[in-house]
């Protein structure tokens, strides 16, 4: 039964990875900005939810406030950090270093405000329920998988059925063409950041409820998001989602065979194999020479 | 005229002697600085705050009592509980600040800085790391805390007495975790126990739901958690959330408020060195009274350890100043070897030849967020 239990656990972890990776992939795919502070948006949303919950505002208000905080952070990063750098023709690395710096600053500010230790929210949702002998699943696991499915369908509909969505897909390829159609690339870029940051919110809330928080959590989130984006194929939201699930499942099912300390290595072994065999990722477009 | 010249010469000589005398006097009254390498940021920073609270209180008492010729100050460097930043901090303390005595914590950090301590003849004193290897880091590395092998040796017979003989270990993949694994392997067979599974986790892992599945399938009576900081709290919470109902056990790393106040940690057994906070000896009494007054809670063993580490420095430096010898690492070491015992928090103690204090170990249980002492074990 161990493998079945680990499959359930892997699906829950994979759903959380998929959502954060889809957010990063949306931002990177549309704007080509290496938004390292995506992990900071995750931690910020999680701590805002924690604050709302412990202040007695309730879970719904907490989720709304967390969503607003994450989106505001994403838009502020785009408008106040990346736009000025890009206006002065700052390189890819300048943007990356700025983003990295902001990520560290957010981590430290959260540490000063909420303390640097581990915080938890006590809830029955994180308590696992016995499904059968040796298999326990918490309500949060079902919520995580449902959220991943729901957000993915909503995102696909948005990107394929709305003008703004289609413009977002076109933004990465040709900002000039966007302008020719009378659209504002800067506004579209902000929408990409707002939506990408919104996608971390379910994952942040579930993490706050399930495993607890500390301000350094963002680095791991960013690392997994990056790995899933590359494995799935840069710019492919569906690819990031599938890759998130693959990495979550692999990380957990590896425990059947390997020592627990090797599970992260399994994630990066998969990343290495994909880079070697399919450099464009599982669902990425091959570049023509 | 001759008289006037003679008077001038006498006055000049008197002035010179007075100036030289005051210079010598001020040399004795020099302020003393020691260093501290604590995690002040990162997931283990909660420990840094606790360690510093003990060290600062000791410095405050030393200065209030005028134990030393000048004022005692502590220069803090952020180790982040990681070896690499700790080495950078230690280098700065030795080369730039030229301190003779450095407070250290965490096994990995302490091992990393120990070579610098030996090379520069700077005393490094650990009051937080419990890896048994810390007893073998040379004459300039001292421990004012009993090490983890002693804690495991106290915990295992207690568990066996309670009928808890099948142990699963979740341990952090570093020298501390490895030493606890080795000690459990060595001690469990002696009491008819068995290590049914041992799962190592990297220091940065934060998700343990998969580990919980493995722990459940191992069918252990006890899960021994050998980690620290935010990670040990996450392990306890996630194991309980994922259906692990076995008894939890741990070592002194769990004796921090953030770990004990976790609802999932209720009933967890953990070991610490035994400190009798109700003792009537003046050092312990003053320490407990003043700590409670300023922090509104009882001190933990970690607070006592770093208080003792700073007080130990003051006692040694005071003895050196009385003899007119400079306060250097080499002289502090010689003075420690020459002194048979020290009046520290918890009573009169003495060092073993390897520079480690030997103290009895206490088994505690977490009840409603606070430790309750169950039994005290004398370890030889």
UniProtKB/TrEMBL annotation, chain A:
Keywords: Amino-acid transport, Cell membrane, Membrane, Transmembrane, Transmembrane helix, Transport. The keyword Transmembrane applies. InterPro entries: ABC_transp_permease, BCAA_transport_permease. It is a multi-pass membrane protein. One of its GO terms (biological process) is amino acid transport. The chain crosses the membrane at residues 6-26, 33-52, 58-80, 92-115, 135-159, 188-209, 221-250, 262-283. One of its GO terms (cellular component) is plasma membrane. GO terms for molecular function: transmembrane transporter activity. Coiled coil: none annotated. The keyword Nuclease does not apply. It is found in: Cell membrane. Pfam families: BPD_transp_2. Belongs to the binding-protein-dependent transport system permease family. LivHM subfamily. PANTHER family: AMINO ACID ABC TRANSPORTER PERMEASE PROTEIN, BRANCHED-CHAIN AMINO ACID TRANSPORT SYSTEM PERMEASE PROTEIN LIVH. This is Branched-chain amino acid transport system permease protein. It comes from Breoghania corrubedonensis.
UniProtKB/TrEMBL annotation, chain B:
GO terms for biological process: amino acid transport. Keywords: Amino-acid transport, Signal, Transport. Pfam families: Peripla_BP_6. Residues 32-369 form the Leucine-binding protein domain. This is Amino acid/amide ABC transporter substrate-binding protein (HAAT family). The keyword Transport applies. It comes from Breoghania corrubedonensis. It comes from the Bacteria. Residues 1-29 form the signal peptide. Coiled coil: none annotated. InterPro entries: BCAA_transport (IPR051010), Leu-bd (IPR028081), Peripla_BP_I (IPR028082). Belongs to the leucine-binding protein family.
């Amino acid at each position: 039964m161990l493998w079945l239990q680990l499959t359930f656990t892997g699906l829950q972890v994979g759903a959380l990875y998929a959502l954060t990776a889809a957010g990063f992939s949306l931002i990177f795919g549309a704007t080509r900005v290496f938004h390292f502070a995506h992990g900071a948006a995750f931690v910020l949303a999680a701590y805002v939810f924690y604050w709302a919950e412990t202040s007695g505002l309730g879970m719904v208000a907490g989720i709304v406030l967390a969503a607003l905080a994450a989106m505001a952070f994403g838009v502020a990063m785009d408008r106040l950090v990346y736009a000025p750098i890009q206006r002065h023709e700052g390189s890819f690395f300048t943007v990356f270093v700025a983003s990295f710096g902001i990520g560290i600053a957010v981590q430290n500010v959260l540490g000063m405000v909420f303390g640097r230790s581990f915080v938890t929210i006590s809830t029955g949702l994180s308590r696992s329920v016995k499904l059968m002998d040796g298999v326990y699943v918490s309500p949060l696991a079902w919520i995580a998988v449902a959220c991943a499915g729901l957000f993915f369908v909503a995102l696909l509909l948005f990107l394929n059925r709305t003008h703004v969505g289609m413009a977002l897909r076109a933004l990465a390829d040709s900002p000039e063409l966007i302008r020719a159609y009378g659209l504002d690339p800067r506004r579209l870029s902000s929408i990409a950041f707002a939506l990408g940051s919104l996608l971390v919110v379910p994952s942040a809330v579930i993490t706050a409820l399930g495993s607890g928080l500390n301000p350094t959590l963002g680095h791991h989130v960013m690392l997994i998001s990056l790995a899933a984006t590359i494995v799935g194929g840069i710019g492919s939201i569906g690819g990031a989602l599938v890759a998130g699930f693959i990495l979550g499942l692999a990380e957990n099912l590896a425990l059947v065979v390997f020592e627990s300390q090797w599970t992260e290595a399994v994630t990066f072994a998969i990343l290495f194999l994909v880079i070697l065999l399919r450099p464009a990722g599982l669902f990425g477009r091959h570049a023509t020479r | 005229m001759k008289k006037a010249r003679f008077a001038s010469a006498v006055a000049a000589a008197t002035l010179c002697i007075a100036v030289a005398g005051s210079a010598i006097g001020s040399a004795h009254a020099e302020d003393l600085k020691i260093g501290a390498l604590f995690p002040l940021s990162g997931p283990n920073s909660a420990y840094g705050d606790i360690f510093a609270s003990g060290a600062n209180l000791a410095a405050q008492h030393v200065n209030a009592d005028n134990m030393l010729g000048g004022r005692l100050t502590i220069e803090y460097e952020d180790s982040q509980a990681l070896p690499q930043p700790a080495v950078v901090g230690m280098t700065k303390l030795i080369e730039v600040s030229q301190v003779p005595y450095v407070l250290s914590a965490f096994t990995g950090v302490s091992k990393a800085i120990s070579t610098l301590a030996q090379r520069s003849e700077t005393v490094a004193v650990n009051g937080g790391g419990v890896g048994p290897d810390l007893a073998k880091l040379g004459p300039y590395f001292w421990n004012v805390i009993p090490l983890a092998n002693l804690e495991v040796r106290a915990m295992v017979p207690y568990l066996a007495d309670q009928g808890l003989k099948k142990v699963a270990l979740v341990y952090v993949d570093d020298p501390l975790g490895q030493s606890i694994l080795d000690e459990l392997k060595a001690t469990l067979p002696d009491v008819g126990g068995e290590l049914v599974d041992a799962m190592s986790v990297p220091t940065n892992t934060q998700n343990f739901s998969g580990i919980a599945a493995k722990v459940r399938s191992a069918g252990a009576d006890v899960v021994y958690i050998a980690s620290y900081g935010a990670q040990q709290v996450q392990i306890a919470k996630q194991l309980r959330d994922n259906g692990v109902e076995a008894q939890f056990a741990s070592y002194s790393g769990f004796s921090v408020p953030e770990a004990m106040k976790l609802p999932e940690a209720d009933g967890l057994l953990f070991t610490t060195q035994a400190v009798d906070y109700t003792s009537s000896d003046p050092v312990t009494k003053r320490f407990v009274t003043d700590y409670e007054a300023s922090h509104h809670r009882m001190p933990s063993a970690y607070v006592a350890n770093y208080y003792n580490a700073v007080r130990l420095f003051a006692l040694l430096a005071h003895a050196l100043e009385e003899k007119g010898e400079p306060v250097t690492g080499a002289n502090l070491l010689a003075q420690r070897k020459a002194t048979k015992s020290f009046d520290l928090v918890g009573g009169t103690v003495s060092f073993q030849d390897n520079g480690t204090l030997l103290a009895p170990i206490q088994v505690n249980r977490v009840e409603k967020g606070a430790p309750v002492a169950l039994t005290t074990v004398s370890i030889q």
